[in-house]
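Q: Predict the bound structure with S-adenosylmethionine.
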Amino acid sequence: MDVNFYAKGKHWCLRGYLSIVRNVLKGKGRSFTYIDLFSGDGICTVQKPIHDSWDGPPITALKCAKNAAFDFKCIFNDLDPDKIKNLNDRIAPYKDFVRGVYNEEADSVYRKILTQLNREDMNLFYIDPNKHSDISWATIKDICEFESTAYYKGKSFIRRPELLINLMTHSMQRGGVPYDPDSIDKCLGTSSWREQIESKSSRTPMHKIFLDTFLNQLQPYYDKGKNVFVMEVRQLENKSLLYYLIFATTHPLASKIFSSYQEYVKQYQKSDLMNEYLSLDARAKGLTSLLDFK
Ligand SMILES: C[S@@+](CC[C@H](N)C(=O)[O-])C[C@H]1O[C@@H](n2cnc3c(N)ncnc32)[C@H](O)[C@@H]1O
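A: Predicted complex:
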């Protein structure tokens, strides 16, 4: 499927997270399930600034599953029947690692998926919709409440699914005003954001108000001080915010995981890949790139 170049940011993060899981669970005899509620068709293609294509998240997860030294399975869903057909073709070589493929609305299919999961296991929900109105808070809340008591080094904690969410603050606004406020209420599960936006004194950018509202909603389940990590993906040229990627886990090692994750995320922001993109994009726009002088 055609994506924007910036989709590489979320795929980089997902790959990094899956590598952490692979290291943490190696040889521990545990089970892990990756659940992708908006999976796409398994391949990502960009046309600009150059034609490029790479594995979509389902194939990345399946390759990881194939090389994992523990039980690693995947569940996929997408509303578009053509994408699911193409995905089924692409994932056929990995069928031993697939627990289910669905073609339904994310807001309803998650109930079926939860019945397939074991709440004592480690389960990751990757939630990457096109727009905020494709997922409601009621769904996220039910996923957060899929909990069990677990132990780490003799101490108990509440295990909840791990979350990697692309919060679509971009589609929540248009022309500097909230777009379709009722759909924002449904996505955030509250209308408390309205007061802050209406308050003329608030200088906080609108996307940050949406983010904070969402993190407050998550707070009873994942403490934003220690269980949540947020990555901002910004446009390279003008640094305007494209999307927030929110990662949440209740595991007691969260802060350790997040600090190594943060380093990994920084590598992406500095990577040759991004510099190469900038230079190609500049050339495509007819500007002279500094690299032309090398
Ligand atoms: C942003 S794309 C996902 C891309 C993919 N996760 C990736 O990282 O490349 C969103 C996908 O959600 C699907 N979709 C749209 N509305 C949906 C819904 N209500 N429930 C499930 N899937 C939906 C679209 O067909 C599209 O493939």
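A: The chain has one domain: 7-285.
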